[in-house]
């Protein structure tokens, strides 16, 4: 599969213990309270007001989603909770969207929804805090390494893969300006984006982490964002890197962090990306910001995983 970039440790993975819904709520609440008691209270209110459709049942739409609907009505979450640690992270993620909506409702119907560059900030930050909590609760070093490898894979997919999606959309929309397109042209654009981001596979040149690109040319068809919210995908890459720097800011300068974060979320779409990050002393217009963000976020996780893998004798 084209997204399987990082492999787990070369040992049979233990059967994952299921997490109860009550325990998942406690984990997310505990994580949120570490950086914002107000957001933790908002999360608990969403639980009490039954704004979350929790169980995975037959006939239910798959995945997870949070809808802001409108000020005074939303937010509502759709989950398919089955007790995995990923489900706990998903609860933290979607609840971040819910808190973001609640905080920004004061901007009114037309301006509560944040710009795409900030739309995933609260969700991914909440998910990151809860991930760190899950990491501290790991019962063994092997489980901790497995969690780290999964998170690294998630970050690579959020940044590199979503940027390749954005490149595919750019190619398609530029070509569409010249006339209608046929499916085979979309296949070609998809493969062009794949090769630009993941390298070439073949006997003469192989600079890709994959052995083959067989049967991947139609995968553009399954990404719903291309049809419903064009160019949304880059917000995942933006947010993952921004959250890496925000988390670093939180660990280095926790005093006043909650209010700075809440102000960013309350702004909805009334502040642009650069203005929103200024209180954190972050300058996203500087090219080094993105390199530093990638190093701080992904680099730190990789170093943790490498140290654990060495300690466990895997490398």
Can you tell me the overall shape? Answer: globular
Beta fraction of the residues? under 5%
The strand count comes to: 3
Order of helices and strands: HHEEEHHHHHHHHH
Low-pLDDT sequence parts? 1-12
Strand order of the largest sheet: 1-3-2
Helix content: 55-70%
Distance between the termini: 24 Å
Strand count, sense and barrel status of the largest sheet are: 3 strands, mixed
Chain-averaged pLDDT = 90
Class from helix and strand fractions: mainly alpha
From the alpha carbons, calculate the radius of gyration and give it in angstroms.
20 Å
Tally the helices: 11
List the SSEs and their pairings:
Blueprint: H1 21-35, H2 37-48, E1 52-55, E2 65-67, E3 76-81, H3 85-104, H4 121-136, H5 141-176, H6 183-198, H7 225-228, H8 234-252, H9 257-266, H10 273-277, H11 287-311
Parallel strand pairs: 1-3
Antiparallel strand pairs: 2-3
Characterization of the model:
This protein has 315 residues and is mainly α. The chain is 57% helix and 4% strand. It has 11 helices and 3 strands; from the N terminus they run H-H-E-E-E-H-H-H-H-H-H-H-H-H. The chain has a 3-stranded mixed sheet, covered by helices on one side. The radius of gyration is 20 Å and the shape is globular.
Short description:
Helix content is 57%, strand content 4%. By secondary structure, the chain is mostly helical.
């Amino acid at each position: 599969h084209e997204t399987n970039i990082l492999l787990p440790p070369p040992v049979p993975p233990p059967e994952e213990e299921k997490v109860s819904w009550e325990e998942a709520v406690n984990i997310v609440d505990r994580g949120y309270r570490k950086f914002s008691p107000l957001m933790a209270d908002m999360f608990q209110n969403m639980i009490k007001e039954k704004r979350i459709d929790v169980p995975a049942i037959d006939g239910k739409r798959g995945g997870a989603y949070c809808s802001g609907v409108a000020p005074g009505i939303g937010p509502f979450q759709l989950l398919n909770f089955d007790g995995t640690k990923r489900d706990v992270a998903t609860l933290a993620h979607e609840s971040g969207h819910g808190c973001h909506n609640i905080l920004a409702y004061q901007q009114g119907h037309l301006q509560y929804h944040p710009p795409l560059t900030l739309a995933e900030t609260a969700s991914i930050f909440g998910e990151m805090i809860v991930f760190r909590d899950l990491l501290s609760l790991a019962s063994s070093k092997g489980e901790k390494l497995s969690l780290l490898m999964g998170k690294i894979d998630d970050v690579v997919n959020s940044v590199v893969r979503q940027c390749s999606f954005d490149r595919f959309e750019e190619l398609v929309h530029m070509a569409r300006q010249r006339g209608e397109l046929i499916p085979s042209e979309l296949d070609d654009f998809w493969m062009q984006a794949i090769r630009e981001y993941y390298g070439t596979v073949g006997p003469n040149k192989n600079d890709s982490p994959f052995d083959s690109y067989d049967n991947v040319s139609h995968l553009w068809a399954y990404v719903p964002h291309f049809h419903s919210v064009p160019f949304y995908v880059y917000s995942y890459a933006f947010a993952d890197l921004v959250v890496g720097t925000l988390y670093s800011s939180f660990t280095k300068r926790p005093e006043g962090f909650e209010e700075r974060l809440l102000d960013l979320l309350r702004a909805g779409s009334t502040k642009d990306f650069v203005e929103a990050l200024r209180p954190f002393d972050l300058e996203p217009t500087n090219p080094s910001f993105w390199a530093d963000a990638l190093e701080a976020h992904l680099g730190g996780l990789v170093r943790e995983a490498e140290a654990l893998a060495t300690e466990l004798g895997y490398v």
